[in-house]
Design brief:
single chain; three-stranded antiparallel beta sheet; 6 strands; elongated; disordered C terminus
Length: about 150
């Protein structure tokens, strides 16, 4: 009987030590992957919309328009290229605006002031969404070529 208890105790200790070793190993693998992911994220561009004002302007002789003004910050470590805002707005009739506003790019650590209007027809806007989109590399237009 004592021999069975000793064997069971030894097996339990082996199991615990094996499990503990596996946990320590996989925690180190996860830490390495997190460090690699963080280094990739930090070394990229990151556009953040701040101080953004959006007004449904329905008067003043300009017709109905969505007036958007504020700043876009690049909080990343690299320049943002081919940047634009994708603006979608809805009124009672449905989708009133689905438009893109391009502004070229933003240097790392800097901001760009924006002030523009998008015309639309119909009833007042009820909801809108504005999303910054960009690339981390300068892309050439599809129909362009480099010349020497």
């Amino acid at each position: 009987m004592n021999r069975k208890i000793v064997i069971l105790a030894v097996l339990c200790v082996v199991f615990i030590l094996t499990t503990l070793g596996s946990v320590i190993y996989y925690n180190s693998v996860i830490d390495e992957l997190n460090a690699e992911l963080n280094s990739q994220v930090v070394s990229r561009a990151n556009l953040v919309i701040d101080d953004l004002n959006v007004e449904d302007d329905r008067g003043g002789g300009l017709g109905n328009n969505l007036h958007i003004y504020g700043r876009v910050y690049n909080t990343g470590e690299k320049n943002a290229y081919n940047a634009y805002l994708h603006i979608v707005a809805f009124n009672a009739e449905g989708e009133a605006i689905d438009s893109f506003y391009g502004f070229g790019g933003v240097v790392a650590g800097m901001f760009l002031g924006l002030d523009f209007r998008l015309d639309y027809t119909g009833s007042p806007l009820e909801v809108w969404s504005i999303m910054p989109i960009w690339t981390d590399e300068l892309a050439m237009p599809m129909n362009s070529t480099l010349s020497d």
